[in-house]
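Let's sit down with a protein and look at its sequence and fold side by side. Once you have written the record down, we can walk along the chain together.
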Amino acid sequence: MTLALAILLLGQIGGKPISGGNPTPGTPQPDPPNFADRITVTGCVELAKDAPKVSDGNAVLDSRYVLMTADEPPKVQYKLAAIESQLSPFAGMKVEMSGEPKSAARAGSVVLQVEFVQKLAARCR
């Protein structure tokens, strides 16, 4: 009976012991959010002028969407870094979002690492 139970258990886990909780060992994990640095902004989510094509809805990009001011004429407030599928439903809408601002490689551009998005209006203008 004990031998049959041991064989059954080895067959279920592939014969290898499971160790660690990281499903992809060696992959660096992101830093936890720093709540002191979090900001909340309001504006319009728009597709960037030179937005790259995306083949994966789970891709994290900081060059596909921007947050525009609701003023006339609108100005780019932030480049938005988030999972594609998190922002695409909000394109063209007025939103309130929170996250951590990060400096971008290009001078003068600030990237907002998006953590939360809430729709305020179906249209921006």
Remarks:
- The two ends are 72 Å apart (CA to CA).
- The chain has a mean pLDDT of 77.
